[in-house]
């Protein structure tokens, strides 16, 4: 689809929880609140509000484009846990990030770029906003090739570049190192910044903790070493933050989602550098779809 088409998708008017409450109240007359059908319909309302009916048909219906990352797979069973999780995740991110400057750029990328890259931009936004990190997305046409502008705890500004390694891709040290090298060039000489790298959960070790606790996500030593080596060589990269979106379906507890991050800081930083402090140590406002579902039940 053409980039110019995206301007007709979202008017710029915010989608309030009050408006969703009204929609949920009307929907409850037809579908029992709290059911999977009710929740999916509400998720669909949010997604269609921002991305439009045509986009929704192309990507989220059973007869959607075969190359769409979001296309459901109901061929072997009546439900698709992966589809349910991704639909919930997309709706939640759109609802929470709509007030972030540059959000419209993310909608454009969802329409004209690789789907997984567009989702990754929203997921990194989720991490930053829910951890209380001030940031904005870079608008098209700005004199920089990075994805984000963000602030440290001290208020110092830096650049943020997002790299997404696609689900299903095989691990390669060469491609990971290449992604970090490209990010270094995009941050540019004389600038300071953070590189966010989304990794497929298959590249990591996932250890179940039991008792309903989220699993432990362990990065392989080789991936850690690659990031450390790149930061030693590039003074402009102050941090590398790995991100993993992991989901699982437990018959007893239902769907579970984990947003795992590993923040690595350059060993070259001086004692007074604002980048020495952990970037993701705080908390910020974030409304989950589970909270809204309980509100509408």
Largest sheet: 6 strands, mixed
The rounded distance between the terminal residues' Cα atoms is 38 Å
> How many individual β-strands?
8
Structural class: alpha/beta
What is the overall pLDDT average? 89
Fraction in beta strands: 15-25%
Element order, helices and strands?
HHHHHHEEEHEEEHEEH
Query: What is the general shape?
Result: globular
Number of helices: 9
Question: What's the Cα radius of gyration?
Answer: 20 Å
Helix content: 25-40%
Uncertain parts:
1-8
Q: Please give the order of strands in the largest beta sheet.
A: 1-2-3-4-7-8
Describe what you observe in this structure.
With 297 residues, the protein is of the alpha/beta class. The chain contains nine helices and eight strands. The chain has helices at 17-27, 36-51, 53-60, 81-97, 103-112, 115-130, 173-187, 221-233, 289-296, and strands at residues 135-137, 148-151, 157-164, 193-198, 205-207, 216-218, 237-250, 254-265. Strands 1-2-3-4-7-8 form a six-stranded mixed β-sheet, with helices on both faces. It has a two-stranded antiparallel ribbon with strand order 5-6. It is globular. It starts with 16 loop residues before the first helix and ends with a helix.
């Amino acid at each position: 689809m053409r980039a110019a088409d995206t301007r007709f998708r979202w008017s710029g008017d915010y989608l309030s929880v009050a408006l969703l409450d009204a929609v949920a109240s009307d929907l409850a007359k037809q579908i029992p609140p709290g059911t999977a059908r009710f929740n999916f319909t509400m998720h669909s309302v949010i997604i269609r509000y921002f991305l439009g009916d045509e986009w929704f048909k192309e990507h989220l219906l059973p007869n959607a484009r075969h190359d769409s990352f979001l296309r459901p797979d109901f061929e072997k069973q009546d439900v698709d846990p992966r589809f349910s999780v991704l639909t919930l995740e997309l709706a939640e991110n759109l609802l929470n990030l709509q007030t972030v400057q540059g959000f419209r750029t993310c909608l454009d990328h969802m329409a004209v770029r690789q789907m997984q890259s567009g989702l990754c931009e929203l997921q990194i936004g989720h991490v930053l906003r829910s951890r209380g990190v001030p940031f904005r997305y870079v608008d098209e046409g700005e004199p920089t090739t990075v994805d984000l502008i963000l602030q440290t705890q001290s208020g110092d500004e830096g650049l943020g570049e997002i790299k997404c390694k696609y689900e299903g891709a095989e691990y390669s040290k060469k491609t990971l190192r290449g992604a970090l090298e490209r990010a270094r060039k995009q941050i540019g000489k004389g600038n300071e910044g953070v590189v966010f790298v989304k990794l497929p959960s298959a590249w990591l070790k996932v250890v179940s903790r039991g008792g309903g606790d989220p699993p432990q996500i362990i990065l392989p030593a080789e991936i850690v070493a690659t990031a450390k080596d790149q930061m030693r060589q590039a003074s402009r990269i102050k941090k590398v933050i790995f991100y993993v979106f992991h989901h699982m379906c437990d018959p007893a507890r239902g769907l579970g989602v984990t947003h795992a991050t590993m923040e690595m800081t350059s060993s070259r930083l001086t004692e007074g550098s604002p980048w020495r402090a952990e970037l993701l140590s705080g908390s910020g406002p974030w409304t989950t779809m589970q909270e809204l579902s309980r509100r509408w039940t």
